[in-house]
Amino acid sequence: MYPEFKEVTLEDKELVESITKRFLPYCDFNFSNIYNWSSPKNPTRFSILNNNLVIKMKNFTDETEIVSFIGDTELINTIDTLLNEFTELSMIPSECIPPEFTEDARFIVEEDINNHDYIVSAQELVELKGNKYKTKRHWVKTFLKNCPVKVEVITSPDAELTRKILLLTEKWSKVKNTNVTDESHALERLLFTYHVYNLLFICMFDDGELIGFATNEIVRPEYAIGSFGKAIISYKGIYQFLEHTAAKTLFDKGIKYLNIEQDLGKPGLRESKRSYRPVTLLKKYKIRRSGS
């Protein structure tokens, strides 16, 4: 197929996952992320090179294009071939970089620290034991004391819940004065194609009003990925309670690890994700030719 690229569609899910399922669940190569973050203005495209999956997609933080791949076949040839066309490859999973490659003087390999995935323990987020979770315990207790909310775990969001989730996302963006156009489009795509994935929607209601939600996709017997979540921040402790509740729901279903995705180099997001005390990072790398 390479050097041809095609826009990703739902019909490509089986092909894409025939490659990605051989690896740990890197969020960027989870099919729902590949598909849902594709848009008419910035479509995500993919190709197959040496039985490896190559993707071209819009950068999450600006208008530039990201080129990456995942696979385990003819890796040096794959990297060399791609760098004949593209200046830099990024978000390359550590599993896809052969050890001898880092010693090859023709290439520069650097950690893509803004895109490492944070992997947290579901059990630890349920139990919140020890001093390291002292602050989160406080906020969970504060929320429970002051906010008698109703929590629902939903697998099939209807039209009314879909409307409420998108409306809450819009309200959140106005409070934060943040542009969430791309995120809203991706979320809307997920809501309209939920039946394709193994999803859990953790929803919190106060007197019938949706005040918080989190979407989690079970992607492996022991792994889930948390992709979207928003809450009304005037409810003190709501995010801590939301994550705690999501973790309990997942843990009860046998999930040990939750991928809470990358921090994109944003200081506030990095601080927030580190506060969940990740047990490991799924590291990714950038590769370019020496002298380029």
UniProtKB/TrEMBL annotation:
<feature type="domain" description="Phosphatidylglycerol lysyltransferase C-terminal">
    <location>
        <begin position="28"/>
        <end position="286"/>
    </location>
</feature>
<dbReference type="Pfam" id="PF09924">
    <property type="entry name" value="LPG_synthase_C"/>
</dbReference>
<dbReference type="InterPro" id="IPR016181">
    <property type="entry name" value="Acyl_CoA_acyltransferase"/>
</dbReference>
<dbReference type="InterPro" id="IPR024320">
    <property type="entry name" value="LPG_synthase_C"/>
</dbReference>
<protein>
    <recommendedName>
        <fullName>Phosphatidylglycerol lysyltransferase C-terminal domain-containing protein</fullName>
    </recommendedName>
</protein>
<dbReference type="InterPro" id="IPR016732">
    <property type="entry name" value="UCP018688"/>
</dbReference>
